[in-house]
Write a structure and sequence with these properties.
445 residues; 22% helix; Spore Coat Polysaccharide Biosynthesis Protein SpsA, Chain A; UDP N-Acetylglucosamine Acyltransferase, domain 1; alpha/beta; 2 domains
């Protein structure tokens, strides 16, 4: 029997996902048309012996989370529960705090996954990899290759190239250690709790030695990466399974657009029914069109109007004029209205938004219920990895550089109104704003 634990975190100060996280918990933000968490759950549910999926975090249970759990259980026919931490306990503290629930039913092994990653989730391969090592007490980290410079932003793994054993682990080193990085997806056996328990006991002893303690719960704050993996490295208990399939973090809104592109491309093999294609007189939410944009504008479409370019997801409830042009890498949410002549590329349009006639949205996220007026232009600067470097990852964006807002995608919060013929470039607009002029490189409060 197998189980899975998905670490969903909780609300934090200064999150890079604002203002989008004001409206919905980050793990429920739609990526490629479905909540971020659904990709994890679907991958876990495909494993034959998977009996239960546990979500661990410190979000307050609310209607959105409860509704998502209810729908996911019905869709995937598997037990899914949310376990709320009383505080942020770290990646190791959370699973240790709920160890009884994880071990209930005596699972042979369990996966632990960070919610803010996008991946093909090679879970069956990780199980086979663990069995090949013939050690029921070994643990597996999913790793991938990054370039030397970007590896400093991740946990770095030094391996034995013959056995794949982790010899050394450093979280975000200050100098180059290895180009194999931690993907935030792990396969553990129940024995991992002995190692976490050792750290917990040490934390308690350290607190007793301190003259002033900041709170009894500090002993339970345990980090898998720094506290557990660093200690296990070199002991013959920790191994790395390396994947060359797609993987990315989803730390910022810009990385959500990149993750959407990766998942939309994967839909060709996993969910072709989610990809929109073209039909006479309007969109059809199946298949894909390979018509080039150059051919589109050259008028080589004969009597059909093809308006889907590349991979596009369109929710069936969206109302889209047949003269709009969407794609590549576009996700259209529920109840969205898109008018005549609209152009959307590399963007996510969220529930209830309206794009009026001849507006243009490029490299942007348009928030729930927002309206973009006629002939308005909303555009951002993509923050994609270097396409010429096969090992490049998306950079961790800093909001400001040299005292100026870093050019990135444009984000409109919920219920933002952009008037006709206005240009919004490389800006972040907080919710419930009625703009009256153009803005460039601004945070509009």
């Amino acid at each position: 029997m197998l189980k899975a634990v998905i670490l969903i975190g909780g609300p934090q100060k200064g999150t890079r996902f604002r203002p989008l996280s004001f409206e919905v918990p980050k793990p429920l933000f739609p990526v490629a048309g479905v909540p971020m968490l659904q990709h994890h759950i679907e991958a876990c549910s495909k494993l034959p012996n998977m009996k239960e999926i546990l979500l661990i975090g410190f979000y307050q249970p609310n209607e959105e989370i409860n509704r998502f759990l209810s729908c996911a259980q019905q869709d995937f026919k598997i037990s899914i529960r949310y376990l709320q931490e009383y505080a942020a306990l770290g990646t190791g503290g959370g699973i240790y705090h709920f160890r009884d629930q994880i071990l209930s039913g005596s699972p042979e092994a369990f996966f632990v996954m960070n919610a803010d990653v996008c991946s093909e989730f090679p879970l069956p391969e990780m199980l086979d990899f663990q069995k090949e090592h013939g050690d029921a007490y070994s643990f597996v980290i999913l790793g991938t290759t990054a370039n030397r410079k970007q590896s400093l932003n991740y946990g770095c793994i030094v391996e034995n190239e013959q056995t794949d054993e982790v010899l050394h682990y450093v979280e975000k080193p200050s100098t180059f250690v290895s180009d194999i990085i931690n993907c935030g997806i792990y396969l553990f056996t129940p024995e991992i709790f002995q190692h976490i328990g050792t750290v917990f006991q040490k934390n308690q002893q350290d607190m007793l030695l301190e003259e002033q303690s900041n709170g009894w719960h500090r002993a339970e704050v345990i980090r898998l990466e720094q506290d557990i993996f660093t200690a296990l490295a070199g002991q013959g208990k920790l191994y790395v399974y390396k994947t060359d399939r797609f993987w990315s973090q989803i730390k910022s809104a810009g990385s959500a657009i990149y993750a959407s592109r990766l998942y939309l491309n994967q839909y060709h093999t996993t969910h072709p029914e989610r990809l929109a294609t073209n039909r006479e007189g309007g969109p059809k939410t199946r298949g894909k069109c390979f018509m080039s944009e150059r051919a589109l504008y050259a008028g080589l479409l004969m009597h059909f109007f093809y308006f889907i370019l590349g991979n596009v997801y369109i929710h069936p409830t969206a109302n889209i004029d047949p003269t709009a042009v969407l794609g590549p890498n576009v996700s259209i949410g529920t109840g969205v209205t898109i008018g005549a002549g609209v152009r959307v590329r590399e963007s996510i349009i969220l529930h209830g938004a309206t794009l009026q006639d001849h507006s243009c949205v490029l490299n942007s996220i348009v928030g729930w219920g927002s309206t973009i007026g006629k002939w308005a232009r909303v555009e951002g600067t993509p923050s994609d990895p270097n396409p010429n470097d096969p090992y490049a990852k998306i950079d961790s964006e800093t909001l400001f550089r040299d005292g100026k807002l870093t050019p990135s995608i444009t984000i409109l919060g919920c219920n933002v109104n952009i008037p006709s013929e206005v240009i919004i470039l490389n800006s972040i607009v907080l919710p419930h704003k009625d703009l009256n002029r153009s803005f460039k490189n601004q945070i509009i409060l």
